[in-house]
Design a protein that fits this description.
Chain A has helices at about 15-25, 65-70, 100-110, 115-140, 150-165, 170-180, 180-185, 195-200, 215-225, 245-255, 300-305, 315-320, 360-370, 420-435, 440-445, 450-460, 510-520; strands at about 5-10, 30, 45-50, 50-55, 80, 85-90, 95-100, 235-240, 260, 265-270, 275-280, 285-295, 330-335, 355, 380-385, 400-405, 445-450, 495. With about 525 residues, chain A is α/β, with parallel strands linked by helices. Among the domains of chain A are: about 5-80 and about 240-320 and about 465-520, FAD/NAD(P)-binding domain, CATH 3.50.50.60; about 115-190 and about 200-235, no CATH class. In chain A, strands 1, 2, 9, 10, 11, 12 and 18 form a seven-stranded mixed beta sheet that branches. In chain A, strands 7-6-14-15-16-13-17 form a seven-stranded mixed beta sheet, sandwiched between helices. In chain A, helix 6 (about 170-180) packs across helix 9 (about 215-225). The longest helix of chain A is centred in the first third of the chain and has 25 residues, at about 115-140. Chain A is globular. Chain B is globular and about 65 Å long. Chain B has three domains: about 5-60 and about 150-225, 2-Layer Sandwich (Gyrase A, domain 2), CATH 3.30.1360.120; about 65-145, 2-Layer Sandwich (Alpha-Beta Plaits); about 250-260 and about 290-395, Elongation Factor Tu (Ef-tu), domain 3 (Beta Barrel), CATH 2.40.30.110. Chain B contains nine helices and 20 strands. Chain B is α+β, with helices and mostly antiparallel strands and about 400 residues long. In chain B, about 20% of the residues lie in helices and about 35% in strands. Chains A and B meet through helix 3 and helix 4 of A and helix 4 of B.
Chain lengths: ~525, ~400
């Protein structure tokens, strides 16, 4: 039997990133993945013959540039194809498009509002500055403001200096971003409903909150970070689907000497004398290592794999309170032809970008209202991409795959998720979208509907939350996942966390995996 | 095949496009505020440049942003926004002016023309509708964006007055007139530092006005001219260009990228006698302590240039068109500043540039060095500070 330095539980992208960094530092690493393939929620699967779906996560926007650089991901096959635009079809057959080209974008916005066309640049500059203000936090283990240790105080001092350097105006804007709802924040800038709705949508993705819920403005910023590193163009589709991201990271990890075992489900963490010693696989196999790093979410890690009895009571209580409440579903379609939107007919550039069903803030808030009371939105928010428009390897020639992110589909739906409810959700999505693209329904060759319950069952994300825990302010920074344990460590010696349930959180970002590895290596 | 989106729909064309496109033998177009305009019509911009200084050049300047500001408080609004005194502007008078943010940093520059007691037209390089609206709260004023509905031509050069039938119009004044029987507004303004006029009209009548000007201008050797020729002329005239010579405060990523009017040699436009206007406090403070930077003319010395090229066995090379990149300028071992645009003046036979220098290096005659790449190697050529404008003919104001 081999002796490992580190066992990483879960071959999701964060687990793989963590393993790659540790292996590069000379550690003997074993990654254990329950499923037959690595990737977690970043996988590509041929669900229907000839059609490859990014089954769960579907774009790359936040993957940290330093990870791309450090792990040489392009050399390991990562190729990100840029997403060019966002189209918002309107209910009156009109549309709003946002384009990459400055002149084209300004002209389109001016069609709706001259004021908004002008405000757009300033808004972009403000978000850029805010993202710059927050970004340093993403690459660091968050200092604990309640601790009096020298190290923490020094971290707080650095943070305070950083914020002071922003100046009063920027600091005030940042405070607004941290406290306001995305809709209220956008009201200060724009008047075009479809623009506000489409922008506010990034404040609610993955979260059981509406555009008028306080705190959502920050999530808007969180999603903007991906657009900051212009030169990296880390905003788009991975060629080959999001599974290609995981494959590139896995390849980098293996090249550095990490071992990856699939179909190896961890049943529990092996603990003796208050210390993690390894893991027990389903079937009873024991594997020992000096350290265990869990890429699973906090609830699964502590309440299932470790077990309450090994943990302090207060800690267990905090973990129980950590909120998941998955709110989103996914519908993947295999299409015989490209969708034809009534508002913008033909196969134009708009099909190469995102298509957002977010005609107004009221539409989104109404969709949320229903979810608040345990129902699936009758008219849901949708974020749609058609990767096969840019990447022919995803579908047979002339045919297409369409990825539809759907919100709200609450995990805690009244009466629970059943097969009938799943299909009803699929019908709602197709019916809603058909209003904008009437040729959709007859073009469907295969439909895959994934509810939050399915996400939990298949990839093990508790309550189907795509961020391993709600991305809301009370669960961010030094509070993620719980106060005093935000630095990838746990109350058990030898046990670390590296999933999106830790700072800075979700999105195919990899920051948690990297930060955890740097903590373990003592170089953070 | 299914229909693909038409490529021509992505950028706007001006109301004169039917004429300018037919003339554009070079196929060299440039973007300007979302429009395409000719860089040069002929294969080289040379003849177009010489027309500006020798006969008359006709430019399509329709992409300028234009606002009509009307109402009882129109003068108050503009007076509050820009740095110059607009209340005192006479009917038919035009003022060139920058405008600033609250920190006294320049947002944009353009002209304000008083059309009648309560009506003004403002031209700008950037969209400013929102800024005007935001400053008009509580005022009795209507602001209309007429950027698309008003077409504009610029007729510049010594023959321009004769082509227009000798209008009796003083420098920076405007008048109503007609060209080919079509009503137009003619202002004695321009961006060349020469005798010249700008012509404003509703876009529907653009083509007949163009045709009438070409017809009247042909005996005077009128030449349709593009942006490359204009760029040389405006540098000779010492006129700065937004996004090239300064970063408007709204686009600045860091504070040090912004500039005050004093730092852009526009101190003369700042009227601190006005009680209130945007940026006044900051500008008053700067006026009393003096600006840290100044915007000056630089002349690069021929002998020094010639020597650098001779060292590698080459004849002196000059830039074929005006350049617009940031080029370091040194005073000894210290970097004194940077040039932002420059080029060879075919008229003055001088290599000139516009530069931002720390105030201690801005006295005319100050000897400096400018970076220049000679045969792939970075060298320094001797240069000195000179007075702007480099070219200032009497006919401009006469």
């Amino acid at each position: 039997m081999r002796n490992y330095d580190v066992i990483v539980i879960g071959g999701g992208h964060n687990g793989l990133v963590c393993a790659a960094y540790l292996a590069r530092a000379g550690r003997k690493v074993l990654v254990l993945e329950r499923r037959e393939r690595v990737g977690g929620a970043a996988v590509t699967e041929e669900v229907f013959p000839g059609f490859r779906f990014s089954v769960f996560s579907y774009v790359v926007s936040l993957l940290r540039p330093e990870i791309i650089r450090d792990l040489e991901l392009p050399r390991h096959g990562l190729h990100i194809l840029p997403l060019e635009s966002t189209l918002t079809p309107l209910e009156n057959n009109g549309y709003l498009a946002q384009w990459n080209d400055h002149d084209q974008n300004r002209r389109e916005l001016a069609r709706h509002s001259l004021r908004d066309a002008e405000a757009y640049d300033e808004f972009g500059l403000m978000l850029h500055q805010m993202a710059r203000a927050v970004k340093p936090l993403l690459a660091m283990a968050p200092p604990d403001p309640t601790s009096l240790s020298l190290r923490e105080l020094f971290g707080m001092k650095r943070l305070a200096e950083h914020f002071q350097g922003l100046g009063a105006k920027r600091f005030n804007t940042l405070t607004k971003l941290l406290t306001m709802s995305s809709a209220d924040f956008l009201d200060e800038w724009f008047e075009t409903e479809a623009l506000k709705a489409t922008k506010s949508a990034s404040g609610i993705i993955g979260t059981l909150l509406g555009p008028r819920s306080p705190g959502t403005a920050y999530v808007l910023l969180h999603h903007y970070m991906g657009e900051l590193d212009g030169v990296f163009r880390a905003w788009g589709f991975a060629k080959g689907g999001n599974g290609a991201v995981s494959a590139a990271i896995a390849s980098a990890a293996q090249a550095a000497g990490a071992e990856i075992r699939c179909s190896a489900a961890v049943e529990s963490v092996l603990i003796s004398h208050g210390r993690a010693k390894g893991v027990v696989l389903e079937g009873g196999e024991e594997i020992r290592a000096k350290l265990v790093v869990s890429g699973a979410d906090p609830r699964r890690t502590f309440l299932q794999l470790v077990g309450e009895k090994h943990l302090p009571e207060a800690f267990v209580e905090s973990i129980r309170r950590f909120r998941f409440r998955g709110a989103s579903a996914k519908v993947n379609l295999a299409l015989g032809e490209a969708p034809d939107f009534t508002c913008l007919p033909g196969r134009g550039a708009h099909l190469r970008g995102a298509i957002s069903i977010s005609p107004s803030v009221a539409y989104l808030e109404r969709a949320y209202d229903e979810a608040k009371y345990g129902e699936v939105s009758r008219r849901p928010y949708m974020d749609i991409v058609i990767p096969s428009m840019l990447d022919p390897s995803m579908a047979p020639p002339g045919k297409h795959v369409m990825s539809i992110f759907v919100q709200y589909a609450p995990y805690h739906v009244n009466g629970g998720w059943t097969d009938a409810r799943r299909e009803a959700l699929g019908d709602t999505v197709v019916d809603t979208l058909s209003q904008y693209a009437p040729n959709l329904k007859p073009a469907i060759l295969h439909r895959q509907v994934i509810t939050p319950a399915d996400i939990e069952r298949i990839v093990g994300l508790t309550e189907g939350n795509i961020f391993q825990g709600e991305l809301s302010l009370q669960q961010m920074f030094f509070l993620r996942p719980v106060p005093a344990w935000a630095k990838y460590r746990t109350p058990l010696a030898g046990l670390y966390q590296c999933g999106a349930g830790t700072h800075p959180g979700g999105g195919v970002m990899g920051a948690s995996g990297r930060n955890a590895a740097l903590q373990i290596l003592g170089t953070a | 095949m299914r229909r693909l989106a038409s490529a021509s729909s992505l950028l706007k064309t001006t109301p004169f496009h039917e004429r300018t496109a037919a003339l554009c033998a070079s196929h060299a177009w440039r973007r300007w505020a979302g429009y395409i305009v000719a860089s040069s019509y002929e294969l080289s911009h040379e003849r177009e440049y010489h027309a500006i200084r020798g006969s008359a050049a006709l430019f399509d300047v329709s992409p300028l942003y234009k606002y009509l500001v009307r109402g009882k408080d129109a003068a108050r609004l503009l007076d509050h926004v820009v740095t110059r005194n607009i209340q005192e502007l006479k009917i038919g008078q035009v003022a060139y002016t920058p405008w600033c943010d609250a920190a006294g940093k320049v947002l944009d520059d353009g002209t304000v023309a008083r059309l009648d007691e309560t009506t003004f037209r403002m031209t700008a390089a950037e969209p400013n509708l929102r800024w005007l609206h935001d400053n008009a709260v509580g005022l009795d004023v209507a602001i209309e964006d007429v950027s698309e509905s008003i077409a504009a031509l610029s007729l510049q050069g010594p023959a321009s007055r004769a082509i227009l039938g000798d209008p009796q119009l003083k420098y920076f004044r405007l008048t109503q007139g007609s060209i080919g029987g079509i009503p137009v507004t003619i202002s004695r303004t321009g961006y060349t530092g020469d005798l010249g006029f700008e012509i404003w009209l509703v876009k529907d009548r653009a083509l007949p006005v163009w045709d009438a000007l070409i017809e009247a201008g042909t005996p005077h050797s009128i030449v349709p001219a593009g942006m490359l020729a204009l760029d040389v002329a405006r540098i000779e005239a010492g006129l700065m260009l937004i996004d090239v010579d300064y970063v408007p405060a709204r686009k600045a990523l860091i504070e040090s990228q912004t500039s005050s009017p004093y730092e852009l040699d526009l101190g003369w436009t700042v009227n601190l006698k006005k009680e209130r206007f945007v940026g006044r406090e900051a500008l008053a403070a700067e006026a009393s302590r003096g600006p840290q930077w100044q915007f000056v003319g630089i002349e690069i010395e021929w002998q020094s240039l010639e020597r650098l090229y001779a060292e590698v066995g080459l004849a002196t090379r000059l830039p074929a068109t005006a350049w617009r990149t940031s080029v370091p300028i040194y005073a000894g071992n210290e970097q004194a500043g940077y040039a932002t645009s420059g080029g060879w003046s075919p008229l003055l036979k001088k290599y000139i540039a516009l530069a931002h220098l720390r105030s201690s290096w801005t006295a005319p005659g100050t000897k400096l060095e400018i970076e220049i790449t000679v045969e792939h190697r970075r060298r320094r050529a001797a240069a000195r500070v000179v007075k702007k404008p480099f070219f200032d003919p009497e006919r401009k104001r006469a």
